[in-house]
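Step 1: inspect the first sequence and its tokens.
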Amino acid sequence: MTKLKSCTLQITLAIFVVFAFNACDQSQKEEHKSLPPIAKAQPEPIVQEKPVSHPVTAKTRETYQWYCAQCHGVKGKGDGINSPHVTVPPRNHAKADYLETRSDEELFEAISKGGLKIGRAPCMPSWGATFDKETIWSLVRYIRELCQCEAV
């Protein structure tokens, strides 16, 4: 009989523990339901005012060849030495059908912030800390030269 009482006591204690933890869990869920949703912070855009005209210089071309051609290719066709090794193929800068649907400001952001920050290719690095604004605008103009297109 003592074994039966001991077994009953253990079962009762186990049921109590289960209900106690379940009740704690429910009160925490209810507490979280009553809290207002947290608003996601939107990052501040860093797009700078587009210069009236920023010429493509030999320095621009050299910068493109040094930093961009590794993925985008020497002629901007997306066939650079690193292109086979990235998860998302680099953009073909010589192909107008896509680039003419993008504004100069969008290209500036892509170069400045990198692909991941603008919802594009995660392998595209952020060059905003490497290049000044004038260099980035000049690269935007150079990309327009490569695709022989203008923004819509």
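Step 2: inspect the second sequence and its tokens, then contrast the two.
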Amino acid sequence: MTNMSNESIAAIVQSFWLQGKDMIAVADEIGIKPERIRDYLYKLRKKRPELGIPNFSVPPDQRSASMTGYGGMNGDGVEVLRNVLEFPDKKVVEFNKEDWLDICEKQTTLYEKDNPFQRDAIVRIYEDPPVGIFMSSDWHLGHLQCDISGFKRAFKAVCDINKLFILTNGDLSQNFVSHATRHPVFQQAIPPEAQQRLAICMLEDLQSKNKLLGVVASGEHDLRDENIVGESSLKQRFRELKIPVFRNRAFIRLQIGKNKVKCEVPILAIHKSRYGSILNKLHSAAREYQLDIPAHVILTSHRHTPAHSVVSLLDRLHGYTTALSKECNWPVVLGGKAIFIQTGSFQRDDFSYSFWGSDTTGGWPTIAIFYDNPILTDVVTSFNAAKKLLE
């Protein structure tokens, strides 16, 4: 080694280092003791840093897979461990990000195919205007203080009145399997499983009578068991329905007309909005209207505080953009009138505010009547009034 130049030694060391060998293996190849090459390389690295002499240590794979013995000190004063065992068939772990991304993509595709919920839908009603839509929510079937008599009357009215349909906007059943306190669990007339079966039976009955336009499911009650155990029996039954099913939020393009579409109404239905106000019942609807998809009817629920309002929004601009949408494929119709609706509930405990005026079923029934022109929409809070307008 003393007959070799510094550059030659550096080249040999670099060559062995690139092959993954440690300092001990290099010393064996050159034929000297590791201590001598350690001292020599330490001095050479300090005097000639431009040579790039490597700082040797036992490779990590040898260190993790082997039992080792003491092999001296390297140039930085770190102990070097000599291998005394070898495992030639040690499994090498491989993680291919492309393979895992492909699996994620396939799983996402399968989930979307099996997921019963959609975000938007076109609903076609083959009836000429006027047509009525019963905006309902918060049935809370199974609650001890649910107004079952009022619910039966409302259900019968929907089935009996011609050209009256129903859209449900969440909280079909109480469905308290568990809670931080036991009170909500004991405030149930029938078990949660029976509540969900009852809700599905009501939906299937409405569907069979061609009365049901869509179902918005809420995470607070309808899908509560999914948050607890990871799956919901109600979600399983939603897969069997033939009508669109949504999760908390739905955008529906309602098309009305027997032979051709005479009226198209965009409806934005949200069970639990991200906005709210204790002073203004319609604050949620107003904020959602400002920030989301243009809609003629904005329906919010969850709070059990019924209210509605018809807001005029630049009728002349609505006429201009409507003409443009028909003649020039203008993408958005602006202006016109917007209807804000906050639904009530059949739940009649201290939390709920279901009574409104003198109607026997309180403020829960809110019915929108659509004519040839959506601007002429009426909103009534009694089935008798709706029946007269639809005759």
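Step 3: confirm your contrast with the notes below.
The longest helix spans residues 97-114. Residues 6-83 form one domain.
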